[in-house]
Amino acid sequence: MASVRPVVPAFSPLDDELALLDGRLTPTLHGWLVRLSTYLPFAHAAALLSEFAHVPLSEGTAQRLTYAAGTTVVVQQTAEADRIVAAAPEPRPGPACLLLSADGAMVPLVGGDWAEVKTLVAGTVVAHAPLDGPPHVQTTDLSSFSRLTTAEQFTQLATVETYARGVERAERVVAVSDGAEWIQTLFDLQCPDAIRILDFPHAAQRVSRIAAAVWGEGSAAARTWQEAQITALKRDGPDGVLTVVAELAAAHPDLATVAEDAAYLTKRRALMAYPTYHAQGLPIASGCVESANKLVVEARLKGAGMHWQRTHVNPMVALRNVVCSQRWAAVWPTVQATQRIATRQARRERRAARRQVAVVAAPAAPARTPLPGGKAHPPPVNHPWKRPALAGGARHNHAQRTSARE
User: Fold this and answer.
1) Most buried residue, 47, 105, 132, 357, by most Cβ within 10 Å?
2) Using an 8 Å Cβ cutoff, are 266 and 81 in contact?
3) Is residue 351 part of a domain?
4) Domain membership flag for residue 384
5) Measured between alpha carbons, how far is 241 from 262 in angstroms, rounded to an integer?
6) Chosen domain end from 242, 267, 283
7) DSSP H helical ranges for 147-219
8) More confident call, 8 vs 182
9) Cβ(30)–Cβ(343) under 8 Å?
10) Residue percentage of the chain with pLDDT more than 90
11) Looking at residue 21, what is its pLDDT?
């Protein structure tokens, strides 16, 4: 009769049919917890969802699921950037005027270190001409892409965002920045034909530093000079201001700040044609990326007492980009689909591993030499089970055997 197959741990077929992930949360609660953790500290997110859904949750669960989801987003976006670079797919439609701006923000790491998260912001530029006021420019439909990585890697990875915003088919692209070299390299790759503009507040800040160095910070002479030069820069362009700045640098060779700021502005002369930009209805400030530094990166990663493992920064900022760019409804289903595939694969591997476990057999009894006719040898006379337990019993048995023979 065949033996019954032993009971072993197994998986319910409903897990796959209901598209459940590992753990005890439904897909809906899973998504809610990750989304809350993208806005709030993990402990607060877990406590809030526990109160609303009446499901016990821990800070560790929120942290684990959020980092896993963010890592999935990072992997997906990296693969998409590689695909775009390798395959050069058909460009997506773009707006009439697209703004690109980039900058960096420092975040605290475990151990007291700080690291720069680089962010690229894209938006649609819209010029408004109200009847009761002067025309003004507004940037709408903002989205962002952030990473803690080198400038070279960021330049490549940002392709996923520029492609999504249709940079190749936009009628005009405006690239506004503080003039940093790594940002200009980024624009060289992503939008070489863009109209490049030096952020006006940064230019004005350099003029103010020159005034403070020459006449003293906060002095009346410094205020008067800097206000006149800043006004002339916006109204007339850079030529006259740069001439005055060069004269000051020559007159004060001992002031390193004046020479440094004069060289900075002179190098970026072509990026300061502010009257032309104004006439074309173009933005001249990079406030959108500076706001992204605060709202996308720092609002979640620079809370009181927060210090991040370096490997956890990109998963979190990737999720912050998703929620702050209003893309959760489009991105989250792809994240869960990817995680379901990984979960099913892990289950299959565990099933296969359990089937391959060798069953340890009981040791076989030692073989006995059979007699002719198939009978085994009888035990010897001195075998333990033949020996009487007591000496008296042995004598009694001997007497019985002698009487029997007689």
Assistant:
1) 105
2) no
3) no
4) no
5) 10
6) 283
7) 151-157, 159-164, 181-190, 200-215
8) 182
9) no
10) 73
11) 65
Question: Is the pLDDT score of 8 beyond 70?
Answer: no
Q: Which two tokens stand for residue 21?
A: 């992930």
> CA 380, 384, 386, 388 torsion: positive or negative?
positive
Q: Are residues 189 and 293 part of one domain?
A: yes
CA distance 167 to 122: 9
State whether 165 and 191 are in the same domain.
yes
Looking at residue 403, what is its pLDDT?
43
What is the model's pTM? Answer: 0.81
Q: Which domain holds residue 195?
A: 91-199+285-308
pLDDT (mean) for 104-122: 97
Residue with tokens 């406030």, as numbered in its chain: 287
Q: How many CB atoms lie within 10 A of CB 50?
A: 15
CATH number at residue 168: 3.30.420
- Which residues neighbour 236 within 8 Å (Cβ) at sequence distance 6 or greater? 275
Number of domains in the chain: 3
pLDDT of residue 239: 96
List beta partners, residue 98: 124, 173
Sheet holding 97-108, edge to edge: 136-147, 114-128, 97-108, 172-177, 195-198
Rounded to whole angstroms, the Cα distance separating 178 from 254 reads 26
Sign of the torsion formed by the C-alpha atoms of 167, 168, 169 and 171: positive
286-340 pLDDT, tens digit each: 999 999 999 999 999 998 899 999 999 999 999 999 999 999 999 999 999 999 9
Torsion of CA 320, 325, 331, 333, to 10 degrees: 90
405 or 91: which leads in pLDDT:
91
Would you tell me how many other CB atoms lie within 10 Å of the CB of residue 237?
17
Q: Do 166 and 296 share a domain, yes or no?
A: yes
Residues 27 and 54 in one domain: yes
Confidence category of residue 363, pLDDT binned at 50, 70, 90: low
- Mean of the per-residue pLDDT values of the chain: 87
Q: Is 7 domain-assigned?
A: no
72 in the same domain as 37: yes
Residue 10 lies in a domain: no
**Residue 298 vs residues 105, 158, 230, 291, 293: alpha-carbon distances, Å:** 8, 20, 30, 10, 6
Per DSSP, the three-state class of 119 is: strand
- Look at strands 172-177 and 97-108 and give their pairing: parallel
